[in-house]
Amino acid sequence: MLQLRLGSVHLPTARRAHRACAASLLLGALLLSACSSADAALELGRTEQPILHGQLDREHPQVMLLASAAGFLCTGTLIDVLGQSGFLLTAAHCVTGEDAGAPRLAPEQFVVLSGRDFLNATDVFPVADIQVHPGYDGSFAVDDIAIVRIELGDATPPPVISPLFAQEDTLRAEDRLLFVGYGQTEREEENSERRIVARDIAGLEGDVILYSQEDGAGTCFGDSGGPGLVTLQGQERVAAVISGGVASDERCSGGLGVSMRVSRYTRFIEGVLATGTSD
Questions:
Q1: CA atoms of 209 and 265, how far apart (whole Å)
Q2: Which of 4, 115, 185, 250 has its CA 20 to 30 A from that of 159?
Q3: What is the domain class of 166-263 according to CATH?
């Protein structure tokens, strides 16, 4: 079992929603103009984290922004395409409410945007369905995984990045993961660009992957749901889904980053991709 080392930060604080500016967030029209933090009280979600001390990412169009009408911003990865439907792997807390039991939110509350900068999104996709892992109840870093089905329409999707399944997972401590997301940076709380940063695995605890952020680099608010990538036989695979962090400051520096280990959810993922449901 993962023991959360929170120091002076108690668990509810570690999971507290972060305020962000997402200016008139979408659904009716793509009104993502810049605004000050005083303008907006739009929540990012509980433990979303951005890329700190990373670089702009130009290589992963499969990594997209997941946005809700309420202003929650997360990241997700296109892992499969079937006909005109795409399947985005993300974190469960990105698509559920904060009330007891983590009530599932309606698909029509969300859209998915692609592009290196979501303020200049090349495509905006409606969400047709959301499947949350049945074990997710809002607890921190427990079964925090979901799949969002988007309607691609006439758009040509990028090549998918497949999940790393159980029979392929040989991850161990000190292996390197590449994390990708649209989250807050060390300079900007309201970042809109996709970024990437490398982290070495500090520990593997059951369904969870841990990585140090003591040097100030890693993930932060807005990166939740984004991928941790590994390369297998020359192909990138999604080995982790960003969930949150513990014992870090309000800028996400220090402590540990926490991600879900994708291979532990092989049955759930394969079931959704095969049938469209988690049953």
A1: 13
A2: 185
A3: mainly beta
What would the pLDDT profile of 88-103 be if each residue is shown by its tens digit?
999 999 999 989 999 9
Q: List phi, psi (to 5°) of 135.
A: -85, -5
**160 near 269, Cβ under 8 Å?**
no
Q: What is the mean pLDDT of the chain?
A: 78
For residue 94, the model assigns a pLDDT of 94
Residue type, 172: R
Closest CA to 170 of 250, 263, 247: 263
Classify domain 18-46+61-160+265-275 by CATH number.
2.40.10.10
Which 3-state string (H, E, C) describes 116-177?
CEHHHCCEEEEEEEEEECCCCCCCCCCCCCEEEEEECCCCCCCCCCCECCHHHCCCCCCCEE
CA dist., res. 138 & res. 158, Å (int): 32
Q: Where in the chain is the domain with CATH 2.40.10.10?
A: 18-46+61-160+265-275, 166-263
Paired with 199 in beta bridges are: 177
Query: DSSP 3-state assignment of 266?
Result: helix
Cα(20)–Cα(189) distance, rounded to whole angstroms?
7
Q: Give the pLDDT confidence of 191-249 residue by residue, as tens digits.
A: 688 888 888 999 999 999 998 876 666 666 668 899 999 999 999 999 999 998 775 55
